[in-house]
Write a structure and sequence with these properties.
3 helices, Porin, elongated, eight-stranded antiparallel beta barrel, mainly beta
């Protein structure tokens, strides 16, 4: 092979590799913010939970398009029990707020979504875990059994506090359906999220009864089922796959 031909061949290979590399990467925004809302269901010291509602706002930093560290705040109503049907005639309503940090990891970080339409459609599936604080504000609670109760009418008060703070640990699974802008960037997302919210303490339902009597060994929790909207913004970074 002549020097000219060798040089031409090498330049062609390098140029081809550069083109391939440029097409095998894309840009993404470093930040996203979102809001959403949906129902929740409680599991606490009262015998039966009930439906409430949750609204949230979030701000996320994207290490990659699919790995995030974020802040989340919630506001909502958690309630449970029923003064007429509960074994101990107990019920509560808690207008709560939370704030905490969370880490989320999406499938797109580890799957080859460029090779399959199906894999591309599920790249936004994720799991997450966080930690923070929940502020409990009990606005309605039965501290004394009513005089018409079937057992121990007028018994009370049930111990507990109306305003408390507890450690809050949200564990979530969900899905982001990505939407692109006119430049081909991921700019928006529709979010579906299922989240179990564990609270460590006895503030969520306002009841702090002796465990020997009420057999209370599990943390108070509420599960939220939300739909939300995300907006991506800020400086852009390069990612090694085509988004």
């Amino acid at each position: 092979m002549t020097p000219k031909l060798l040089k031409s061949t090498l330049l062609t290979i390098i140029f081809t590799l550069l083109i391939h590399f440029s097409f095998a990467q894309s840009n993404y925004f470093k930040w996203s913010g979102g809001i959403g809302a949906g129902p929740n269901f409680s599991r606490t010291d009262v015998k039966k939970g009930n439906w409430g509602h949750t609204a949230y706002g979030e701000l996320n930093f994207h290490f990659t398009p699919f790995v995030t560290l974020g802040l989340e705040a919630q506001y909502g109503l958690v309630q449970g029990g029923n003064i007429r049907t509960d074994t101990h005639n107990r019920q509560f309503a808690n207008k709560y707020t939370t704030i905490g940090a969370n880490f989320k990891f999406m499938l797109g970080e580890v799957i080859d979504f460029e090779s399959s339409k199906f894999l591309d459609n599920i790249k936004g599936v994720y799991a997450g875990i966080g930690v923070g604080v929940i502020n409990n504000n009990i606005t309605d609670i039965v501290r004394f059994k009513p005089p018409w109760a079937a057992y121990d009418p007028g018994f009370g008060p049930f111990p507990g506090q109306d305003k408390t703070r507890n450690i809050w640990v949200p564990i979530s699974i969900g899905y982001n359906y990505f939407l692109y802008d006119g430049y081909g960037y991921i700019r928006y997302a529709i979010n579906l999220n299922l989240q179990s919210n564990f609270t460590f303490g006895e503030g969520l339902d306002g009841y702090d009864d002796p465990a020997a009597k009420f057999k209370n060994y599990d943390p108070d929790t509420y599960n939220s089922y939300t739909i939300g909207f995300k907006y991506f913004f800020g400086n852009v970074r390069t990612y090694h796959k085509t988004l």
